[in-house]
Amino acid sequence: MIRYDEKVRRVSLCNAEMKCSVLLPVYNGSPHLVAAVESILSQDEDDFELLIIDDCSNDGSAEVVRRYAKVDARVRAMFHTKNIGLSATLNEGLAEARSEFVVRMDHDDIAMPRRLSTQIGFLCEHPEVAVAGSFVYHMGRDRQHDRLVELPVEHSEIVRILLHRNCLYHPSVILRRSEILALGGYRAEFKNSEDYDLWLRAGKTYRLANIPVPLLRYRFTPGGMSLSRRWQQVICARTAVVSFQNPEWSYTQAEQEAARQLERQGNGGFLEQVARGTVRELNLLRLHREALHMLWIFARQLSPARTARMTLECAFDLLRARRRPAPP
After folding, report:
1. d(CA 187, CA 203)
2. Which residue in 40, 123, 241, 265 is a FRET match for 12, CA 20 to 30 A apart?
3. Contact 228/148 with Cβ under 8 angstroms?
4. Mean pLDDT, to the nearest integer, of 39-68?
5. In the Cβ-directed half-sphere of 150, how many Cα atoms lie within 13 Å?
6. What's the DSSP call for residue 162?
């Protein structure tokens, strides 16, 4: 239970000079960075800082960031001379943020126009919540083909589901800075699952929530993802759960136990499920060229029988998509 004086402190944050800090780490994000930054700078709430940290990009991202920092006083830019990774960059951002409310943003997503005001208002009205995500849209070929993703809303349901899968979209959340720093922030050893590990730990001490409104357009781009890489990501996620269940274990112990659990389940059926789900989602978003590309990548890593099933499903999805009228 939160003490009365702590409630007063949290509510008083809503009257602070700066409403929030938007933390946007960048590494080689130039293709979509302008759209991401513009979606923040055009918010209906303009009392914020946009803290952009470039983690030694080599694709021109730093130049984009410098241009915005020159023309908009709300943009505060930081530049690394060597790449330090996402977790360390995020912890640096939490330490540097000038507001107690920290909004996460990725360089390839787009914030909805009322995102900041909605999330700030939610934390002000719910001083017991330390992390709040939201519903999201998976970004389609164009806006009319976006797909709404609804997520669990209440704390009890979120912490229950977190034992099985991540149900807080990292770039959709707003955090209470002091509370997250008190937990130690992001842990670098949980690469590819640093957010998942943080939500599990935060849910032990603080309340979590998802605001039942879509506040982010999330770019569903598997890119060059291979099934072997996806398997490693699954091991990382399971390691986070095992570590949460056995906090006295070292990371190595948790990782070894996670690998044993997953190997007992077998990865053949799981990887087919991942591949089919990825290709189907791309087709639903009308990203048909990307779906066919991922089908080609996955086909080289699955058995002939699994590949044949997935190819047939993909063909049927394409036919249905062509017959389905576009949304109004």
Report:
1. 16
2. 40
3. no
4. 97
5. 3
6. H
